[in-house]
Specification:
The chain has a nine-stranded mixed β-sheet with strand order 2-3-1-4-5-6-7-8-9, with helices on both faces. It contains eight helices and nine strands. A hairpin with a 2-residue loop joins strand 7 and strand 8. It has 247 residues and is an alpha/beta fold. The chain starts with a helix and ends with a helix. The chain has a single domain, classed as 3-Layer(aba) Sandwich (UDP-N-acetylmuramoyl-L-alanine:D-glutamate ligase).
Length: 247
């Protein structure tokens, strides 16, 4: 997409997204971090849909989490890719949904993708989350050329925007993520394998059917089985479980 046309598309999508959110005022749950955002988002969607119903909770399709992807996720539209004609059709659809759409979910679970300094600001100009989950701040192939300190700074900006009656859920096993609790007035809850985590996984075991562990939270213990491997799934499950308990 050529730069001038791209800016026009971005401007209109941002405007229509803000109108949509102003009209419907959903509760916005943001999932941010270097990795594991999509898995965490999917678990949260599953748990909240079980609680509130399929139509009341929506999340990013695919991994739409950037300055153009985020409004597409909120307006629930596909990307126009490199076709100007498709983008024009999308803008017409976006206008109709923003101005005249009646049905809209009460809760949005949105990935926010940031890699470099300045990435968060345009996202926060569109959405102001009521709850934030931070998965981790670590190197990956996606972040190979970016500074983790810059990522921390962008996530710091995100948690600073949380309202006093908002919620912040942090991976206690990640040192940088844990520091974010110092930059918000929202209610903070931590999760992880660490003994200091408020929501904690213990006694992890792996077998042919997946993983089992004990989940300790709010003075209760629950035996859990996940039919997937890897700690990333356990972190995502814990984050979703804690989110569901508060929301």
């Amino acid at each position: 997409m050529k730069s001038i046309f791209k800016k026009i598309v971005q401007f209109h999508l941002k405007l229509l997204t803000k109108i949509t959110l102003w009209r419907h005022r959903p509760f916005i749950i943001a999932v941010a971090g270097s990795t594991n955002k999509t898995t965490t988002k999917d678990y949260i969607l599953k748990f909240l849909r079980e609680k509130y119903g399929e139509k009341e909770v929506r999340g990013n399709p695919k991994s739409y989490n950037t300055e153009i992807g985020l409004p597409l996720a909120i307006l629930y539209l596909d990307s126009g890719e490199s076709s100007a004609l498709r983008w024009l059709k999308i803008l017409v659809q976006a206008k109709m949904r923003a101005l005249f759409g009646r049905k809209f979910p009460k809760k949005l679970v949105l990935e926010l993708g940031v890699e470099e300094k300045g990435d968060m600001k345009p996202l926060l100009e569109m959405v102001r989350p009521n709850a934030v989950i931070v998965t981790n701040i670590e190197g990956s192939y996606t972040y190979a050329n970016s500074s983790l300190d810059n990522v921390f700074g962008e996530l710091k900006l995100l948690v600073q925007q949380l309202p006093k009656d908002g919620y912040l859920f942090l991976n206690c096993d990640d040192g940088r993520v844990k520091e974010l609790k110092n930059f918000t007035k929202a209610k903070v809850t931590t999760f992880g394998f660490s003994e200091e985590a408020e929501a904690r996984a213990e006694n992890l075991r792996t077998d042919a059917q997946g993983q089992t562990f004990d989940f300790i939270f709010q003075e209760k213990q629950e035996s859990v089985r996940i039919k997937k491997y890897g700690r990333t799934n356990i972190y995502a499950w814990m984050a979703a479980k804690v989110v569901k308990s508060f929301l």
